[in-house]
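thread: overnight batch results

M.L. [08:02]
morning all. the overnight job finished for the chain we discussed friday. pasting input first so we're all looking at the same thing
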Amino acid sequence: MFAAKTILVPVDFSNTSQAAISVALQMADRSGARVIFLHADPTLRSGVDGASATGAAASDVADTIAQREAGIRGEVEQELERAAARGVTLRTTPHLLRVTGGDWVEVALRLIAEEEVDLVVAATHGGDRGGLLGLLQGSATERLVHRAPCSVFVVKAEGFPYLTD
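M.L. [08:03]
and the structure it wrote out:
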């Protein structure tokens, strides 16, 4: 039977992303997997990928990264509390927070290779590419499904009654 050792969860702070966090924590509890929570923000690109951010700009980037990491920690804690309220105690599995700049699909593909990820749990949200371009190119999650060398479990918000997306 398949048991993931390392699970990657892209986080965009949407309600659907919250559902993916919930699913990943449950899977990690059952398999003992390590979980990597990823938030990639294209606006952070110059401060993270290159040396172009200095002084105040570097400080702003560091503050943004710290805020996003705190946000991820909060969402993980919220899911653990929701499970406990339903009488389910999830083991706190080892996890890593990665907040960086760039396109999240490209960053995820790089992390899959670097961290030997064997399962990605990603939210389907669609609409990250609107209009005709989105229709022709598909969503970012679809791009990840097609390009990832590992399995990708796609989560919808349906079935999570406390979510509104």
